[in-house]
Amino acid sequence: MQLPLQIAGRELDLSAGEEALIREQAERLNGFYRGIMACRVMVSSPNRFLNQAPVNYHVRIDLTLPGGEIAVTRQPKSSLQEAVQDAFQAARRRLQDYARRQRQEIKRHEEPSRGRVVRLLAYEGYGFLETKDGDEIYFHRNSVLDDGFDRLEIGTPVRYTIAEGDKGPQASSVIPEEPGRSRRQRKPA
Question: According to the model, what pLDDT value does residue 88 have?
Fold first, then answer.
């Protein structure tokens, strides 16, 4: 099914080749989301007639979808082709996000786990955390946020997320905690 498309130029006339480029990019949107009801593309060049300023092209894309709309406006570009491609690339990303929300595939961020440092090999640049379940998890100095590795001691409470490493699960995004304080209450170092 062909995408319902309106193309307009403000303060400039688009050539047949430029309109073909826009049509091609618009048709590619169907591959990312089949339910597009309408697509309107406005190309303008407000400073085209000013002798002292370089020509910049603005592209605005308005998509009508079942249950919503998406509007994309990008930074002006000196090349019309670049401006069109940049705007449609942003529209594709927004369509993909819209489709995920409709399918309820929104990425949920897990709360960090809590543990404490049980082994620390400072010279080697790594250590181990003890989880609530009593398991030990490896962490590297680069996993400790805010260059906090050198401030760690045995028993330091931490928050962390688990990532899959080369040799199994390991802690990443390790955040040292001060006893009795949450991260938002911590004073900057």
Answer: 93
Ramachandran category for residue 78: left, alpha or beta (phi over 0 → left; psi -120 to 50 → alpha): alpha
Length of the chain: 189
Query: Alpha carbon 47 to chain centroid distance?
Result: 32
User: Quick one: pLDDT band at residue 129, thresholds 50, 70, 90?
Assistant: very high
The whole-angstrom separation of Cα 62 and Cα 91 is 9
Structure tokens at 91: 């529209």
| DSSP SS3 for 146 | helix
Instruction: Give the tokens for residue 100.
Output: 């995920």
- Reported as a single tens digit per residue, the pLDDT across 96-125 is 888 888 777 655 666 788 999 999 998 999
Q: Which of 151, 37, 155, 122 is nearest to 139 (CA)?
A: 122
Nearest CA to 186 among 159, 149, 153?
159
Q: What domains lie within the chain, and their CATH numbers?
A: 5-102 (3.30.160.100), 113-184 (2.40.50.140)
